[in-house]
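User: Design a sequence. Structure:
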């Protein structure tokens, strides 16, 4: 890599204060430059049409189409884009799903800022940084196939929300879906997991570490 060229970064998070804070910290490193910001996956997708970046640092919990679907769409359109997930979810199953979709790494918001800087540099060297507290659990998850591994990105997102106790109306509002579409997702998820009630779905999610 040209030592004179800075690594370009786009920050994707729906909280402006979070973006501002990490932008200031990232740019303390003279080898890094934040070249764009987006408040949603849709904005990030549109931004990439005219603003390239070496690394896209993206949250998963965002309004609109949501993090998993945004990740899938971005990598379908820009398969060489390096997307580093930066999430509040310290959950191995959620991290594993993001990695399976093509994320180059998974960081948690509890990590020290200098670890995030190190992870961006690691990505540029071809590494795959993963929050240390999640590595062994992710390895265990991949040792055996699980029904929820077969869910589509949006289905997995809805599963986590249902298992966290959110209602169909709440999910449809947050993800900009009609209640009928959200109900259809619930039905498909139950069928794929082999559960028949909300209680069984929540038990499945807890047994597999999808929710606390």
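Assistant: Done.
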């Amino acid at each position: 890599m040209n030592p004179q060229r800075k690594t370009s970064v786009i920050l994707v998070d729906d909280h402006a204060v979070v973006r501002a804070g990490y932008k200031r910290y990232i740019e303390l490193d003279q080898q890094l430059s934040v070249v764009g910001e987006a408040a949603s996956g849709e904005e990030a997708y549109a931004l990439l049409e005219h603003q390239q970046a070496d690394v896209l640092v993206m949250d998963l919990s965002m309004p609109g189409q949501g993090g998993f679907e945004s990740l899938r769409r971005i990598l379908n359109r820009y398969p060489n884009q390096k997307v580093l997930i930066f999430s509040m979810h310290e959950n191995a199953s959620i991290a594993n799903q993001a990695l399976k979709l093509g994320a180059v790494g998974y960081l948690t918001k509890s990590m020290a800022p200098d670890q995030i800087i190190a992870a961006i540099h690691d990505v540029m060297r071809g590494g795959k940084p993963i929050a240390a507290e999640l590595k062994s659990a992710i390895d265990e998850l991949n040792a055996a196939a699980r029904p929820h591994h077969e869910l589509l990105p949006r289905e997995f997102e809805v599963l986590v929300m249902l298992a966290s106790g959110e209602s169909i109306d709440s999910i449809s509002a947050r993800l900009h879906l009609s209640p009928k579409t959200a109900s259809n997702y619930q039905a498909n998820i139950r069928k794929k997991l082999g559960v028949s009630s909300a209680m069984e779905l929540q038990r499945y999610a807890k047994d597999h570490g999808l929710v606390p």
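The chain has two domains: 7-141, 147-207. The longest strand covers residues 32-38.
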